[in-house]
User: Fold these one by one.
Assistant:
Number 1:
Amino acid sequence: MASAALDISYFAWVRERMGKGGERVILPNDVQTVADVIAWLAARDAAGAAAFARPERVRAALDGAVVALDTPIVAARDLSLFPPVTGG
Amino acid sequence: MKRVLVTADPIDAAAEMARHDAGGHGASASFLGRVRGDGGLTELYLEHHPAMTLPALERLAEDAAARWTLAQISLIHRVGAMVPGDLIVLVIASSPHRAEALSATGFMIDRLKTDVPLWKRESFADGRAEWVEQRAADHARVADWN
């Protein structure tokens, strides 16, 4: 599968630890699922390591729909990564 | 009739209830969530997802309308910086009958706490700022509606 650009947005403490609200990335070919993206970000730099030290505490949405972390990215255009929600 | 809003402006609960009064419904139930000043809290900041939060609230109102006979729904969540006493969220459900209005109101606020992309950060007088952790009890309450 050819590499494609993916827009990633970060929220709440994930955003604070990443030091930015979002970015566009080109994923390596072996990064196929949401969990793979998280592991790739965690290994990339210190900010990623801090944000994703405990991936089980992170939730994800692909193109606006909440998904499980083992979901393949396939042709998704944007990924949101955030903590469990705490509104209300 | 359904009014679902995500707003950075203060919520006017009286004006919203007046919209339900005007409908002449037999029963209206409401939930108002306010910022508590516990532990020296000085600010509550609500972060939202610009593309997901409003659609998630709309789905929640649609789910309630599919489950109970409702004549009118208001589901309004404030975002941004708030101080103790400010309204964070307002839910009003109107129906011909009280049981449906009460159940729909409880369902919407319980599901909102586990399903809608919103995140709270608390700031305190001593300079601390902390993101609020999700509570297991909130998931238990939602399971009760299934």
Number 2:
Amino acid sequence: MISIADIRKSMPRILVHGLHPGIIQSILDYDHLLSREKPSIVAIVARGRKKERFFWGGNEVELPLYASIDAVPEAVRKSITGVVNVQSARNVKNSVTEAIEKMPNLKIAEIFAEGTPEVHSLELIKIAISKNVLVVGPSSVGVLVPGVLKLGAIGGTMYDQLLDARIKDGGDVAVITTSGGMVNELIRVVTGRGRKVSFAIAMGGDRFPILDPEAAILLAENDPQTKEIVYFGELGGTDEYRIAELITSKKVKKRVIVYIAGVVAELFDTPPQFGHAKALAENHDESATAKKKMLAKTGVVVADRFDDIASSLKKGKLDEVALADAAVNSRRKAYFMSHLSGEANGTIQLLGDDLLKTVQGNSLASLTLSMLLGQKVTSPKLIEFTDFVLKLLVDHSPNVSGAVNTMITARAGKDLVSSLTAGLLTIGPRFGGAINDAAGVWLDGIVNELTPKQLIDIRTKATGIVPGIGHKKYSLDNPDPRVKALATLGEKEGKYLLFARGVEAITTTKKSNLILNVDGVIAAVMMDLLVSELEYTPEKLRELVDIEFFNSLFVISRTIGFTAHYLDQRRNDEGLFRLDDSDLEYFK
Amino acid sequence: LQLPRRKISEYRSKLIINRALGLNYSGWEVSYGKVPDVPKDGRFVLKVDQAIKQRFKRGLIYLDLAVAELPAKVKDLTSEGFNYLLIEPYYPHDAEAERYISLRRAREGIVLSYSRSGGVEIEAAAASIKSGLVDTLDMNKVSAETGLAPDQLKILIEEFDSQYMSLLEINPYVIEVNNLKILDAAIEVDSAAGHLVDGWSEDDFRSPAATLTEEEIAVRKLNNESPASFSLEIINPDGEIFLLLSGGGASVVIADEIFTMGHGKSLANYGEYSGNPSTDETKLYTEQVMKLLLKSKAEKKVVLIGGAVANFTDIKNTFDGIISVLRKYSADLRKQGVKFYVRRGGPRQKEGLEAITRVLKELDILGNVYDPSTTIPAAVASLVKGLK
């Protein structure tokens, strides 16, 4: 079984399944308190956005969100050692099972939900044992290994609480409790005696906690740092009888201080439901008094009153509590975040450096691509290609719809921005917006490991067209010279271009003008170069498709063309444009 | 917080078991005194169907009644506060033939227990009960000893699993001329699995409590509608100590301390809220406790607003809810000389504790406010002192 010593060996890498901002923030605060360079949470699985911002001390940090465990990049998924599960009770069994199956390095998981069906917990017990994962809960507030791991709300959810609890580094008293609400109180009892906790576990008050009291006590017994064990249990259930057996059979030799809550139930013939799910004594031997008597016989220290826990612990001495720094106390979330530019050290910065310095060291193409990708790009290949694309897309005669709209607006006497906008607003699925669509299709083909034939079949069924394929004028016999020029700037063996060519090889057998067009080749070559030069993963390429990066190249370049057509029309000064009657057929 | 394991009615239990075994079952549910139509010429058994143990000893079962006798007896039981009754055809049989069988869910698996000597005295016949995990028992042997066919045993176990039961008890049943007759049955289900079953629903849950007060009903409703947890049980309507507690564990520790100090009989209520309820929800909950408090005929009244050091329940938000109720009832609270004792920690404890201290002073209500540097037992001791 995973031991507490195993958990202490390395910095945890945590996945939070579900978005519980309070718990996530508290784990980040704990990481920051430990002066870590990076958060221990590396992924959040939740629908919605791609990232969430959290505080990192007085500043902010972003954590990535994924829609499902499968959507988490493989390398990240395989590196996960801890899971916080904040799924609904109905989803606990499936989500925890999935986490255990898909995260080969998972050591420990916490289940937060209350009301998980018992049968589901019993099934999870088997899975946890067979896959050697420490699963704590359901209804657990988590596991705390001071100086190493805060898995869950345990220890508190406010920065000052974490400081106050003195859990920055470990002591020698293990705290094991069925009650999550009592765990901080118990930590306080320990620190009140001048001692610190070696680790703390809230097992949850369900009938069948996956990590049961017996296993939890053994964790403490086998933990070299633990000298004494504080155990908080409640009436109901018979788990404590197994603890007694551990002690009688000398499997546990450390000093155990036990408190069993629920003697008040003896006031009643039919007691009300006290405390947690488990806390109803169905038989006499499940009553608090019976369990206390039985445990006392084994020689453990039974704390009759709550204060007896403290007085049973040997006294120690602690340092003063540190105070949170002012930046943490006054922190507030910013309205926007930017990865491109902003003020720092009293100067305006662009892409991580002084504005002027960045501008002077870069060509317009390299600056444009860096801004669009949100990262500094120095690859000569990528810059050369971008430069060529931006030049190539600048204009394609005034006949195209966007330019026509710009010219009409200019002739209506409108200003530069109105006329330019009229042209830009024309860009869309039928005009200039196909680079992005083409990128999306090539990406689908590669990610889903389709053959060009399969992809064409899928597209034919869906819409009947393949973006990036087909031209009015050019054909196999009369190839588009721009496509050839663009392709020569790309990777010779680039898989996206090869795939696009594969598609073209089939479509041209149907009709000779169904050739790879400018949109299709730009998309393919750009993706190949992003992979070879910047190591873009399919997930990152997908994000570029989602945010319409590929179309932005067209928009920027063609802005020059539209602006020029506006200026040209103003110079011509021909007055308002109107269609002649013969230009419009009226159907009565 | 509701106990996940819930007893369902005997009527529903028998329907589930008989149906699974392919047996006919005739029985009539009586709810809130409404007598159903039963065959005119029959003889009947009438019993309280509210998950109450030892009904025979407590006189909650009538045997061998004629149709004409039913309305009066139903009226009697209903007027005692029993809202759910069951009528079945009277089935005379030899008490010696009564047998016992049960299935119980444990960590290790499903435990099957059975005995030749079933019936009301089963506890006295404990030594006769044989038990084992269903995965390890020799089912042919069990079949021979219980008189149930291996198929019937298999069906019971499958039904136990598919209906997410935690306990199924048939006590007694008789086997006469190879016919199985189930005379009494009880099923406890895992209410957390309500969305996974077709055999029962929460309408079938039964509890011994005859009637709930409006305050208890309000809190149950609140609990059902909120992602947070709330519970409230009245122990003694004229009690002196009123609990407004937070946290399943801490609330029991506090009640224990009061009990151990010899003031268990003074407890008016038990209950708790947890899971970071909103200000409004906490207000609704507090309102119910304050209503109980103002109704109590006790001369001295104290309130403990208590809890441990919370993980994520926001102390300021929850205390704001409590404070608004204190304001609402401040005149009555002053008049009755109610004393408040507050002990709590957790997120925003400083703001929460300062706010309640200020308000108690402003409203001229007696009270002591403690932060977590005062232990739970010390705060309880201070409360008990306030009773004197």
